Amino acid sequence: MLRLSKRSVSTLLRSGDRSLRVATAAGTSIHRSSPSSTRGEAESRWYSSLTNGKCRRSESLAHLNMKANWFMGYRNESSAAASDSSSQAPPPPPVEKYEYQAEVSRLMDLIVNSLYSNKEVFLRELISNASDALDKLRYLSVTDPELSKDAADLDIRIYADKENGVITLTDSGIGMTRQELVDCLGTIAQSGTAKFLTALKVLLDNKDAGGDNNLIGQFGVGFYSAFLVADRVTVSTKSPKSDKQYVWEGEEGSSSYTIKEETDPQLIIPRGTRITLHLKPDYKGFADPERVQKLVKNYSQFVSFPIYTWQEKGYTKEVEVDDDPAESKQDNQDDQAERKKKTKKVVEIYWDWELTNETQPIWLRNSKEVTTEEYNEFYRKTFNEYLDPLASSHFTTEGEVEFRSILYVPPVSPMGKDDVVNQKTKNIRLYVKRVFISDDFDGELFPRYLSFIKGVVDSHELPLNVSREILQESRIVRIMKKRLVKKAFDMILGISLSENREDYEKFWDNFGKHLKLGCIEDRENHKRLAPLLRFFSSQSENDMISLDEYVENMKAEQKAIYYVASDSITSAKNAPFLEKLLEKELEVLYLVEPIDEVAIQSLKSYKDKDFIDISKEDLDLGKCDKNEEKEAAAKKEFGQTCDWIKKRLGDKVASVQISSRLSSSPCVLVSGKFGWSANMERLMKAQSAGDTTSLEFMKGRRVFEINPDHSIIKNINAAYKSNPNDEDAMKAIDLMYDAALVSSGFTPENPAELGGKIYEMMDTALSGKWSSPEAQPQQHMAQSHNAELLEAEVVEPVEVDGKK
Predict the structure, then answer these.
(1) I need a surface site. Which of 174, 183, 683, 716 has the fewest CB within 10 A?
(2) HSE-up of 120 (CA within 13 Å, CB side)?
(3) Does pTM surpass 0.85?
């Protein structure tokens, strides 16, 4: 609402040549009428704080790039007559309606070449249409048996002429009348099947007619996929509702088609539809009978009607052979010998119809009626395997999402045990109403760590694109994926609980890394994955154990699950970190595969028991190793020695501490809580494409722990108290750190320097131990004739702690 001050109102009222009218309809506009009634033109002006004075709307709004009536009011100056008649609104302009126009040839090109990415799906689409025609006849013949009297057999027959590049597909379905040809083939994207389903639903009193039907079509563009490979298509059809047979013909790139009545008696069919594809020169290879048979088995193997293909066959027979003249003369001389006619085996070639879709969709049957042998045979035929699967699961899901499925666990990994990152496999075959849609998935139905699972999934309703090649992301697909994953876990758990332990050992040997990858990538299923894991341990070096078995063997006072990561069982069981735990009989898991450590860290805990890496600092063994008086005495005795060692090592270590995990080793180097362990640091350095800049950041702190009960540490402590600056003591500390570095699993930064220190220490310890006094002067004399004789000193072994 535009507000005016009292002074402004008074000024306007004193103006005798103007009258003020406030528009009630537009609360922000002020109208003024001009005294001159002869001016017919109307001028619209507005006032704004952005400009000085009056502005013309057409010029100023364009200049300011603003829309009229956006945030400011404006006033209209017009004649008195125009002002009086402003209350009557002019009639609105007439609205004209137009229909969308399309260039048919261009639209057909888009439909054919843009919807389908694979040329070979044309046969799948045509077979699906034929199956729908047979299904329609079957439905309608229930109430009208006269419809199916002309031809009793309901089947599909495909004839391939390789020489001429022609494919002919014939079905004995419902056929089409002349008007149905115009409606179904002459109208793009009109689905005759969808139209039939709508009518059937109304006929059944609005009940769900799509629940149990087998009709496939829904988009009305499947027929035009024939132009993917053909430049001319002929459709000859005979409906039981009509006495005449009609022929529809269309060509690629043409915006028109022709329909005529069939007059050739040899081409008359009792009922149904015959589609003839005249293939393009580049696609005549599709007319090979063997290739047609292969496409039928791949895409339409489980269509409910029999599909016959015209195939070359042969049988063996014996035929007589003409005798050799020389052999005949010799046989004639032997009158007593009985002559026998000579024959040979030849293969007689002939052509005949062969049933192509012999395998039945056993997932449609009740699981109680299917035997294990039938499941195994279906697995071998469907996935071209020669071994029986380890396990199978046949189930039906109802409710929000309805589908049927059979899942298998293969006996061996087809890609090799080390390939666990390829999630794009062809192990899951997706069907919609028994018609194969795709087996090329990128994690839509299974996560990549379960990509080894094989099986079939069949659903009546799925969110597919028009070409029925791509499964679109939707809530239905997510629910389906969740249920498939759950069934896969139940199947694997069944193998692990089997009485035959070798089955799960075989499974783990092939797919154990997949499940460990799942621990890293799928946090939602940690509770399902953890019971399936298997590891070696300090109490089971030959047979793997589960986490449940570990928890059962835990001591009463043990509160955590201990593990150590290494490159082999041998190095793991000899690591100095285990000494105190083995002494206390605490079981430790051996993580010997590169993925193990990351998988365990992703789990964090199992049954309220935290996973603890014994190679990291602040190891707490709970009540299993609590002796506070001894710890206090050790800290008092060796506290200053630890500071002295830290000063010598400098930035190599974060601190020097008294160890609670050592019993026989003098020292050990442990990692910080939040950094990489020695094993992980080794693995990251070995990555060929690893970023070396992140190594220093993730390396973490290192803590040097000493064993106060070891003789070496006692001697180091004595050296500190007697002479902290002793050079030999300093060298001993350096060598002790390098030795701990290697024994703890770290890689020395300068192996040559470490070798030099060891050789120097060996030279000191072994100097003159085995050489005789006479041998040394002779050696020096050989090196120099002027060298003086040197006295050899025999070093006796030093006795330390009762040992030499």
Answers:
(1) 183
(2) 17
(3) no
